Amino acid sequence: PALESPMNMMTRKRLLSFLLLAALPAGASATLKARAPAQVSFVALGPAGLRIEGKSSDLQVTDRPDALVVTVPLSKLETGISLRDSHLHEKYLETQKYPNAQLAAARSAIKFPGPGQTTEATVPATLALHGQSKTVPVHYRATRNGAAYEVKGDLKVDFREFGIEIPNYLGATVKPPVDAPTS
Q: What is the largest CA-CA distance in the chain?
C-alpha cells in the first residue's frame, strides 16, 4: 500500500525545529548549545491526503564566533515505518555517502531578543546536504526566558537543487519546492 512506501512524496522537509538554550548568561556574546527537547523534523505531503512525518532528537549545535551551526545525522531520521526509513536513508539521502546535513547561519545576521522578549526574522544560511551547499532562507522565532533562548526555525528544501531524486511511488509524486509549516 502507498502508506508503506519508502519516504516517497518527501519534498516538504523541515530540517529545523529545535530548542537552543544558553549555557552562559544570555546575550549576543553568550555561548549556545542544544539541550533537550531539541528536535529536527520534516513533513512530507502527497496526493490524496498522504502525510509522512519524520523526526530525530539527534542533532548538534556548534556555536562558532562567526556562525551558529546545526548538524543533523541523517541516518537518525525516523518516520515510524522501518521500510520507509530504509529507503529514505539508502536510496534518497544516501546516508552512507552523505551522513550529515548541516545548516550554518552567520551570528551577525541573528537577532538575539532581550529578556522576556521574542524576535522573529528570516536570515540567509548555508545548507550542506547530499554533498552540495546552497544558500537558503531560514525563518526563525527566538524567545528569551532568563538565560535561556528557545528557538524554532523552518526552511524550504527543493531536493532537486541538492541532486536528490524526487521520491516517486506508483507514479505519485509531489511537485517541489514546497514550504514547510512552522510548528
A: 53
Nearest to 74 by CA among 137, 21, 127, 35: 127
Sequence-ordered alpha helix ranges (H) in 30-175: 82-87
Measured at the CA of 75, the angle between CA 87 and CA 64, to 5 degrees, comes to: 145
Neighbours of 133 (CB within 10 A): 13
Query: Any idea what the Cα angle at residue 59 is, between residues 5 and 29, rounded to 5°?
Result: 145
H/E run at residue 164: none
- The pTM of this model reads 0.79
Q: Which residues contact 87 (CB under 8 A, 6 or more apart)?
A: 5, 6, 7
Nearest by Cα to 39 from 24, 19, 23: 19
C-alpha cell at 156: 524550504
**What letter does residue 78 receive in the DSSP assignment?**
B
Q: Convert the pLDDT of each residue in 33-56 to its tens digit.
A: 666 668 888 877 777 777 778 888
